[in-house]
Amino acid sequence: MTATTVGRPLTIEEYAPLARARLPEATWHYFEGGAGTESTVEANRAAFRRVRIRPRVLSDVSHCDTSTTILGEPASAPLGVAPMAYHELACEEGEVATVRAAGELRVPTVVGIFASRSFERIAEHATGPVWLQLYWLHRRGVLERVVRRAEDAGFRALVLTVDTPRLGRRLREARHGFHLPPHITAPNLDGEVTGFLHEHEDGSSALSRHADAFIDPSLNWSDLDWLRSRTRLPIVLKGVLSAADAARAADLGVDALIVSNHGGRQLDGASATLDALPDVVRAVAGRCPVFLDGGVRGGTDVLKALAAGARAVFVGRPVLWGLAAAGEAGARDVLTLLRDELEDAMALAGCPSLDSLTPDLLDRGAAAVAPAASYDESPEGRR
Ligand SMILES: Cc1cc2nc3c(=O)[nH]c(=O)nc-3n(C[C@H](O)[C@H](O)[C@H](O)COP(=O)(O)O)c2cc1C
Fold this sequence. Notes:
Elements: H1 15-22, H2 25-32, H3 39-50, E1 68-70, E2 73-75, E3 79-81, H4 95-104, E4 109-111, H5 119-125, E5 130-134, H6 140-153, E6 157-161, H7 171-175, H8 194-197, H9 206-214, H10 223-229, E7 235-240, H11 243-251, E8 256-259, H12 273-284, E9 290-293, H13 299-307, E10 312-315, H14 317-348, H15 379-382
Parallel strand pairs: 3-10, 4-5, 5-6, 6-7, 7-8, 8-9, 9-10
Antiparallel strand pairs: 1-2
The protein binds flavin mononucleotide.
């Protein structure tokens, strides 16, 4: 897709080439890259393309309302910004620009533990809800301090990323020799990590070695108690794709799940998030909200995810494209485009409210989203 030559971009994807033109080549590949062959990056998009919509008619769509609540807080649309490290790589104001943009739309921003601005500074500029993403650090004392600081700064939820016992094999980072520029740091972890942050060697990804030194791969279900006992904030698990894990998380009382494969950056070959969503929604059975991220690039994608059972979706790379192309205004425009396209899709699909986005809106209902179970109970199937 190419950028429009007249006026501002008309679609989110038109922000990608604008961002690329303004970023160092290695940074572009750090943003865009996935793990291994990037088959999961592609699968996320393919799933959205494959599922099609059966619009309803004669349903009075003179007013279509995209507003909702996300973890109990009002939002103008079922959207949020997914956690991403170092927004300063995309624009000078870093996460401050992001939370201002998201705040204007009243949608949540998940700030990464590797944010390039302090939690306090981010919170000062936030006009919408801000959540904190955590990796399970070896140093539990550091984790505890980070949680307390975020609570004190007014963050509203904790998002524990559970798909990252180690970093995926991000080949593009290695091929393009990506490393953090010296002026970009992780101030919320300062002193604990700066020793590693800017190391690099030819041919290997500095970032993955750095992360592996920090992330504790022994994370398991019993650790959730530790986190629960140290915070009063809602706990969201990010990176769940299996129904069994989703059911267990709901049994343990987590406050929400994000169906995510980390934008295809972790396990290459992992399911597309839209494909995994219906099974997760069924397993959770209404006990907590289920969110989705990965490959959301337009309003009809949001509509499909909601029809398949998501309460809201989070957006990753497109927000970085907006930030890189035009700072805060670019990120705001990306989110606004998504919200406006969703409103448009709702009208054309005959759905005036988010409640009317149900699985029967999708071709063959949720079955079109999730392939049927391979085990066939029928006598023919058991032969
Ligand atoms: C540059 C970049 C950095 C990311 N950093 C983190 C991170 O620090 N923690 C995390 O949980 N997810 C991280 N993610 C994954 C996102 O939260 C999200 O799952 C993914 O980007 C969604 O897919 P999308 O980019 O196709 O929208 C990162 C993604 C990108 C592109």
